[in-house]
Write a structure and sequence with these properties.
mainly alpha
């Protein structure tokens, strides 16, 4: 159980730069198009830029659940997810290292 917890903690920490890259990509789209911070939803971002990922996720998960979470602004949700993921990783790392 300890090694699984450490592995998950490292996964959370090591994927943070990828998430920051997605935030920068979203900000670039917002600054170069007519979107605003609160206007571009996660669903619009996925449909416009990562259509294959959008279709694959919708084939696996409950559509009403995804529609609820994908209605929120992309930059806000990505930032919240990155912060929670980062702190969760370091919290788990401290918890399982001792």
């Amino acid at each position: 159980m300890r090694s699984l917890g450490l592995g998950f903690a490292y996964l959370c920490i090591y994927t943070t730069p990828i998430q920051v890259g997605f935030i920068i990509w979203q900000l670039f789209i917002i600054f170069t198009t007519d979107y605003t911070f609160l206007d571009m939803s996660t669903k619009e971002f996925l449909v416009d830029n990562l259509k294959f990922l959008h279709d694959w996720i919708y084939s696996w998960f409950w559509n009403a659940f995804l529609d609820f979470f994908y209605q929120f602004p992309a930059v806000v949700m990505s930032t919240l997810k990155t912060v929670v993921n980062y702190y969760l990783g370091f919290w788990l790392l401290a918890k399982f290292k001792t």
